[in-house]
Write a structure and sequence with these properties.
- By secondary structure, the chain is of the alpha+beta class.
- It has one domain (18-185): Endonuclease, Chain A (2-Layer Sandwich), CATH 3.30.870.10.
- The chain has 7 helices and 9 strands.
- The protein has helices at residues 5-8, 36-40, 60-71, 85-96, 111-114, 116-125, 171-185; strands at 21-24, 28-31, 49-55, 74-80, 100-108, 128-132, 138-142, 147-152, 162-169.
- The strands form 2 sheets. A 7-stranded mixed β-sheet has the order 3-9-8-7-4-5-6, with helices on both faces. The protein has a two-stranded antiparallel ribbon with strand order 1-2.
- Helix 4 (85-96) packs parallel to helix 6.
- It is globular and about 35 Å long.
Length: 193
């Protein structure tokens, strides 16, 4: 029997985010998410990796804001399958406050269908926005002292599901991820070379 996926799809309500971004001393961002991120990542050490799993206690954007509160203003390089409005607006506000210096984002081509308003909004505000055939969920934060990468299952949405990933503080592999994201954004086809 043939069927259409839209006929069987289950609509999951988007969780209202309990996070708030606040500008405080020297343009850092403080993230309030039931203290879960503070408890899990009270600090980050250079050269260490941290595996994590969460049942919607936080989302990727909330983790990014927590990390920015630890390392200070940074450039952000993102490959994500999806982004909803709340994270997009929070990231733009952080750019306007100087907490995120540059934001380069590669989306899967379905962003135009799933969240067309978000795509239009971030094109006006992020440093670079591109569309590709990507299911990757990678975030890199870089400044003079820190290079942190997050590779995991979660997008920039509030998802009421189990998510897992690895957060690592190290320049070499962070640069590898930054470089392929930028190459894709610049149309250089890094995987065909």
């Amino acid at each position: 029997m043939l069927f259409r996926t839209k006929d069987i799809a289950v609509a999951l309500p988007e969780r209202r985010t309990p996070v708030t971004a606040e500008e405080f001393a020297e343009n850092f961002v403080k993230c309030k998410v039931k203290q879960a991120l503070d408890a899990c990542f009270p600090d980050i050490q250079q050269g260490k990796s941290y595996d994590f799993v969460s049942l919607s206690e936080w989302s990727t954007h909330e983790m990014v804001f927590h990390l920015l509160s630890l390392i200070g203003p940074a450039n952000l390089y993102v490959a994500t399958w999806s982004m909803s409005e709340t994270p997009a607006r929070m990231l733009v506000e952080a750019m306007q406050a100087g907490v995120i210096r540059e934001l380069h984002c590669l989306f899967d081509y379905r962003i135009k269908v799933r969240y067309p308003g978000v795509h239009d909004y971030v094109k006006q505000h992020f440093t670079t926005v591109g569309i590709g055939n990507s299911h990757a969920k990678v975030t890199v934060l870089m400044n003079q002292e820190w290079a942190i990468r997050i590779v995991g299952s979660s997008n920039y949405t509030n998802n009421p599901r189990i998510e897992a990933g690895v957060l690592s503080a190290g320049r070499a592999v962070s640069e590898l991820h930054r470089d392929w994201i930028l190459a894709e954004l610049n149309g250089e086809n890094p995987f065909e070379q």
